From TrEMBL:
Domain named Serine hydroxymethyltransferase-like: residues: 22-396
Cofactor: pyridoxal 5'-phosphate
UniProt gene name: glyA_1
Listed EC numbers: 2.1.2.1
Protein name: Serine hydroxymethyltransferase
Family stated for the protein in its record: Belongs to the SHMT family.
Provenance organism: Planobispora longispora
HAMAP family documented for this protein: SHMT
Amino acid sequence: MSPGSPESPVPYYGPDFGLLLRRDPEAAEVLLDELDRLRDGLQLIASENFASPAVLAALGSTLTNKYAEGYPGRRYYGGCEVVDRAERLAIDRARELFGADHVNVQPYSGAMANLAAYAALLQPGDTVLAMALSHGGHLTHGSKVNFSGRWFNVVAYGVRRDTELIDYDEVRELALRHRPKMIVCGATAYPREIDFAAFRGIADEVGAWLLADVAHTIGLMAGGALPSAVPYADVVTFTTHKALRGPRGGGIMCTAELATKIDRAVFPFVQGGPLMNAVAAKAVAFGEALRPEFAGYAHRVADNARTLADALATEGLRPVSGGTDSHLVLIDLRDVGTSGAVAEQRCAAAGITLNRNAIPYDPEPPTVTSGIRVGTPSVTTQGMGQEEMKEIATMIARVVREPGAAGEIRQRVMELTRIHPVYPSEL
Ligand SMILES: Cc1ncc(COP(=O)(O)O)c(C=O)c1O
């Protein structure tokens, strides 16, 4: 079926919100309220973004109906010839974007991608060297409440107390002492560039696999705003919904040598049938990231983060490590005398959504924390730039110190979001 010309109606069956409104007003109201929340506030959660209408169209498509266990051309169900094309498109585009030998686009999420990577390379009880959660690592890098910490012997490295940068000497010493089978680099709350070549060198020295979990930074890698992990790591896991601006989901890239192991680890070891609507949406997102404009976006995200970090510092809110090379800034609030939890609430009252976050060597428990984490992917997608970042820094600093200013700041937040609307109503 041809997609039709822009003038003629497209013979497509897709999301009909009017129908949902009539059939299930209660659920429809939730969707509308969430849209209002997005439109009326500033979204500074570093791991979020606004997927494009094209990505949303693919997600809301009839591909959600299809069972397609297996891989293109090798499925355990009939009728997969069309969805095979979606998966091939996603794989081909990701390979072109990142120059990877092999890509698996089926992981349901970043955590599933990591579980599959561990399963492909390790046996339970093996030793893994990964970044401490309290210094910015992810749950899947060794938390006791996660499969990684329960099934593997995870040794943690961290950042130096003085520079708050990864201590590569410590990584090497720990690697030599514990002889891990795998080293994990990549983080969830580390603002600085990661030296993948240094990690590769250490992994080679001890004969370990190198897993780069670039869930957070894959979008900046795609746009050339941060160096790629692909030439250095044996396996690269990622998410598609953060700076990359695609649907919620995950993916894995690896060397040709590991392709079969990774594919078998994703299916049938960790997952069942892939979410083919999400796979199609990943293809759309990779296609968008291949366009020249995306490089501009990725660089603006990083520039905005730098400006935000500098402006927060000027306001007396100290960026951990002194700044950022990426899309996120981690702020130490100890000098302000406010916990991360309280700052999160005060900002929320002003329509600014961000999250509390542990800072390295945090004296507070994880539910309280001494820090907040802010990210620029969403506000950059809305078209905000350096001037807005400076104003946002002033607003955060003010409301964190002066909760009574929340109402006034909320008004200004609304004005900013009217100038830079997310999902403009006319679309
Ligand atoms: C470094 C890292 N890895 C993995 C994940 C997990 O991603 P998901 O929430 O899609 O499972 C995250 C999520 O924030 C992350 O930051």
